[in-house]
Amino acid sequence: MTALFNRRLFVAFLSAFLGWTGAVQGRMMGYAGPESAQSKPQPPQTKAAQTPPLQPSPEPAPGNPVVVMSTSLGDITLELFKDKAPVSVENFLQYAKEGFYNDTVFHRVRKGFMIQGGGFTATLVEKPTRPPILNEATNGLNNVRGTIAMARRQALRSATSQFYINVVDNRALDHTGFSPDDFGYAVFGRVLSGMDVADRIAAVPTTTKGDGMDDVPIEPVLIKGVKVVK
């Protein structure tokens, strides 16, 4: 019982870190969680932080879209798992085709954890989005190094435009059950090339800005755009 309690407590803390929060005056703060900045947990310190560079990926599966995310630190090419996460992929593609991601930023980055973006401008103004989508965390895909997944609030069905790229294995974010603590975060793609760019983004110096918005790059890391190439 003690081990189960400790696991649920760990996942609850980690989910709080990964959930967006409504900050003072109703602004969402990204992976800040619903509590104040003082009570926010830190990501786990695990051996995953020492994961070796991602090995060359095979060709994308037939029918799966491929996009290039151009950032101020280089390009990241992504395969989107339309076969495994059709709702998340269609949502991401729609935002990309509309130009929504143009000139947004990676507003929360953490070396040895993940990089999150797709919702804020360089001045940390949150962009309006479409309604939330279905949480596809039950699709059997894991939050391992090099995967891209939907960011969300603590509510299970609250993901809109924001996403994160895992720079280490983050299996504690996987679907393991149907309670709020266990439901997990929906993986919908993987990095085909440019993982070195993701690692560079994760390693940039960060600070706290605005109303307790932590892990914000001191120099904005821009997402110039997301282009569908296949």
CATH class: Mainly Beta
Distance between the termini: 49 Å
User: Largest sheet, if any?
Assistant: 8 strands, antiparallel, barrel
Overall mean pLDDT stands at: 82
Q: So what's the overall shape?
A: globular
Widest β-sheet, arrangement of strands: 1-2-7-5-6-4-3-10
Tell me roughly what share of residues is in helical segments.
10-25%
Specify Rg, calculated over alpha carbons. Answer: 16 Å
Write down the CATH topology: Cyclophilin
What does this structure look like?
This protein has a single domain, classed as Beta Barrel (Cyclophilin), CATH 2.40.100. 16% of the residues lie in helices and 26% in strands. The protein has 3 helices and 10 strands. The protein has an 8-stranded antiparallel barrel with strand order 1-2-7-5-6-4-3-10. The chain has a two-stranded antiparallel ribbon with strand order 8-9. The longest helix has 17 residues, at 2-18. Residues 1-17, 19-42 and 44-56 have low confidence and may be disordered.
Structure keywords:
8-stranded antiparallel barrel; two-stranded antiparallel ribbon; 26% strand; 10 strands; single chain; Cyclophilin; 230 residues; alpha+beta
Question: Would you kindly provide a brief summary of this structure?
Answer:
This protein has helices spanning 2-18, 86-97, 195-202; strands at residues 66-71, 74-80, 104-110, 114-121, 147-150, 163-166, 187-193, 206-209, 213-217, 222-228. The chain is α+β, with helices and mostly antiparallel strands. The model is unreliable at 1-17, 19-42 and 44-56 (pLDDT under 50).
